[in-house]
Every structure is written in C-alpha cells, then in structure tokens.
Automatic annotation (TrEMBL):
Belongs to the FAD-binding monooxygenase family. It comes from Aspergillus niger. This is FF domain family protein. Pfam families: NAD_binding_8. Its cofactor is FAD. SUPFAM superfamilies: FAD/NAD(P)-binding domain. Keywords: FAD, Flavoprotein, Signal. Residues 1-25 form the signal peptide.
Length: 415
C-alpha cells in the first residue's frame, strides 16, 4: 500500500510490524471486528527484529510453543528452539491468515505525533525511508508497537574510516559478506554473540571475541529436534499443544522466586550460580574461567542460555576470548588497550542497541510532551505499561516497565 492513498483517515494507526504490531492487528480483527487500521514500519515487511536480524545462528531462546501467539499456535516448528527463518515464516503465515499485508505501509519511519485538541485526533508525522519525503496522517487511536531492539549501537573508536574490511552489526547483517577463511573480530558476549560464534567458528580462519562484562551462562537445549510424530500430535490431537504451552509457562514461572529478596530467592540464586559455574567448568578451557564466571548476583542481568554450544566452542584453536578493550581500528587489524594487535578482516558488532524507543516526539493535551510528563513524575511510567495521562487514545505495547527477563516476550505482548 502506498502512502497517501487514504480518502479519509484510518481509525487506528499501529507503529511497528513486529510481534507487537502483529498481535495488535490480529486482535483488532478477532476481538473488535475492526478492519479500519494502518500499520507503519521502517522495514518493508512484517517481522520486526526477526526481519532485521539475519546473522548466522540467530534463533529463539524460549521454547517455540510459548514463543508464539496463543490464538495462532504452530504445530510445525521443527525444533524446540527454532532459528530465525522458521520464526519469520510463522509470522508471515499469521499475516496471510489474517490478511494483514494490505494494512501495511512499509519503509516508513514514525518521527512524531501530536494530539489535536480541536478535533480529538492524533496527527502522526511520518517519513519515507526510500525518498525522505515527510508527511502526516490523522487517526483516532495511536498504538506504539515499537520495540527496543531497533537501533544498533555504533562502533565509537578511532579508525573506523580507515579500516579496509567489513563492519557489520548483528542486527544489520550483510549476507553478501563471506566469513570463510577470514579473521573475524566479535565485539560483545551477550545472546547474539553466543549464537553467532559457534555458527561460524568452523568456517573462519580465526575469531577474537571481546567482552565487556560477565554473564551467567546456563546449559540450553542443543539439537532439540521436534519429530514429525510430535508435529502430527500437536496438529491433530486437540489440546496437546496448548497443554505443552501451559507447562512451559509454569516451568519458566518457577524461576521467578529467585528474583525476590527473600531466603528462598537467595537460595535459588545460589543454585543458579552453581549450575552456571559447573556448566562453564565442565565445558570451557580453564584459562577462560575468570572471564566466564559472573561475580555479581543472579538476576542483575538476563541470563544467557547456551543452546548452540558456545561454551564448548571456546575449546577450538581458532577461537579466542578476551576482556581487553578495542581502542582503535587499523587497515586490517584492531588495537587494544593492553597494546596488543589482532588481525581483522571483518568486525562484527554484537554490542547491543540504543534504547531510543521513547525518543520520538510525542505531544499530548495542551502540547505537553511525554518527556515533560515523565520529568514531572520523576521517572518513566505508564499505567499498566500501556497508557499515559494527558495522552488520550494513545497506547503502548511492551511499554515502560513491561520487560521480563525470564519468560516469553510474546506472552508479555499479549498480556
């Protein structure tokens, strides 16, 4: 759908075509029988982070039966922890089932919105990614389905301009760049890096991975293939897939007491730390133990589940892990704070994202911005993480303080 084709403004505008926007659009049709809405997204299609992320090894770290919409169960996942292509295929299947493609205006950025007191509508400012043209669109209801993992952190060190290799962020992966027989630098040791390193280790000449902070690495489900027999059971036996989904939910919820400041929570945190320590010491080279064993309380950061054998990959001769700091790029190498130099043909940024989903200019009644509203409150807030005072008919999905570190984001989106 091209911009500017509406003879009158839509009732609802959804910004974002990832899981949040997908769920909202489906529920508008399912629950409210509303077909009068438009979805804007900076990318060309549906998928959000699953469309943007194409790096080798990209996949889910939550069991697939629970990383899906409750009203659109998928019996066809081939693995308990499917890879990116399967997740994206699932999303596209839901799009087709609910006939959502005709509602999407892709390659369009949301640059702002203001509440119009005179006619009780939202005036939404948009920009075409392809042409740079800016225009506005009115609506009665505005829904922000913008995710946090959208703006990759840049590499802010001297020498980026003189580096003669490729610099790629995991969220902006260039599939035309081959890593075969290359010296690869990986910056970061979170979930993306933990998936990437084992996926490419056999093909590259060398990997040097730079880490900043320690993680709690926990054993994952390696090679957890779902057989055709189970797929048929999920498809044809009523209630089985729903029951599995519920059991996964219960299992994940059993971990939540460890985040409480109680005796039970302290005991569970110690047990989790012991599991992590045992897993690392049984599978990683001893020289890396000081880098892999976290020295802070469980729960301060999200745990990293090693579904792809990252810890054991550190035993390979062509894989190196260091907590040295990259301070400069040269033509075909990187220089570090310790004075060392490492060969580099490709620099992979697995260094996270700038959390800027609340930076877009949003003005409510009497022109009051949300930053002004939050400044007055003293902190970022939203009622039930969804709505804000003085911002009528504006709603968040996965809004302030809605993030959960132990369970499925899709579950949180629906709730």
């Amino acid at each position: 759908m091209a911009s500017g084709t509406f003879c009158s403004f839509p009732k609802v505008i959804i910004v974002g075509a990832g899981f949040s926007g997908l769920a909202m659009a489906c529920q508008l049709k399912r629950e409210l029988k509303c077909d009068d809405f438009v979805i804007y997204d900076r990318d060309a299609g549906f998928g959000g982070t699953w469309l943007a992320n194409k790096y080798p090894g990209c996949g889910v770290d939550i069991p697939a039966a629970f990383y899906s919409l409750s009203f659109a169960p998928n019996p066809d996942f081939s693995n308990l922890f499917p890879k990116r292509d399967e997740v994206l295929q699932y999303i596209n299947n839901v799009v087709m089932e609910y006939d959502l493609s005709r509602h999407l205006v892709g390659n369009t950025e949301w640059i702002g919105a203001s509440w119009q007191d005179n006619d009780n509508t939202w005036l939404v400012s948009l920009r075409s990614v392809t042409t740079g043209e800016e225009y506005t669109q009115r609506c009665n209801i505005l829904i922000s389905a913008v995710g946090a993992l959208t703006n990759p952190n840049p590499l802010n060190v001297p020498g980026v301009d003189r580096f003669q290799g490729d610099i790629i962020h995991t969220a902006r992966w260039d599939q035309s760049v081959s890593l075969r027989d290359k010296n690869v630098i990986v910056l970061g040791n979170g979930a993306s890096a933990t998936q990437l390193v084992p996926a490419v280790a056999e093909d590259v000449r060398s990997i040097t991975q730079f880490m900043r902070s320690k993680q709690y690495f926990l054993p994952g489900g390696n090679n957890t293939t779902i057989s055709p027999i189970w797929q048929n059971i999920f498809r044809y036996v009523p209630g089985v897939l729903l029951a599995v989904r519920f059991l996964i939910f219960l299992y994940l919820e059993t971990s939540t007491p460890q985040f409480n400041l109680t005796k039970t929570g302290a005991k569970m945190r110690r047990e989790t730390a012991e599991i992590s320590e045992r897993y690392v010491k049984e599978n990683a080279p001893e020289k890396y133990w000081p880098l892999l064993l976290a020295d802070y309380q469980v729960g301060c950061k999200r745990r990293v589940f090693d579904h792809d054998g990252y810890i054991s990959t550190l035993n390979r001769d062509n894989v190196r892990l260091t907590d040295d700091e990259v301070i400069a790029l040269n033509e075909r190498s990187v220089s570090t704070k310790s004075g060392a130099t490492y060969p580099a043909d490709v620099v992979v940024l697995a260094n996270g994202f700038s959390l800027t989903q609340y930076d877009t200019e949003l003005c409510g009644r009497r022109g009051r911005s949300r930053q002004e509203s939050w400044k007055g409150a003293g902190y970022i807030k939203a009622y039930e993480s969804i709505g804000m005072s003085e911002f009528p008919n504006f709603f968040y999905i996965l809004g302030p303080n809605s993030g959960r570190g132990h369970t499925s984001a899709v579950f949180s989106i629906e709730k």
